[in-house]
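Q: I have 97 residues here and want to know how they pack in 3D. Can you give me a structure?
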Amino acid sequence: MLSDRIKNQLGYEWCDESTSKKIDAIIAQGQAYLKRYDPTADFENDEFAFFLLFTYCQYSLSNAVDDFGKNYAEEILSFYHAYLVKQSKEVADADDV
């Protein structure tokens, strides 16, 4: 499960219910943030999407979400670009039918 994987990597695999809810909320916020750039993102199976989400969570736990956007602008742009390429390929494939 995505939440368990992120908690484990953050070092919160054994945490109280309050901390667990806080991290779950941060994960949801991170997914919403990143889905602005790729609404189809699969954070469980796409390692790059997972990496961005995990990194967002790290920054959020440090109260530095604003810095995430600045420090990872290139990666976020790449994430968005990959989505646009995927979308244009789907449109081109649909036109071929």
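Q: Anything worth noting?
A: The helical segments are 2-10, 17-35, 47-61, 65-71, 73-95. The chain is about 75% helix and 0% strand.
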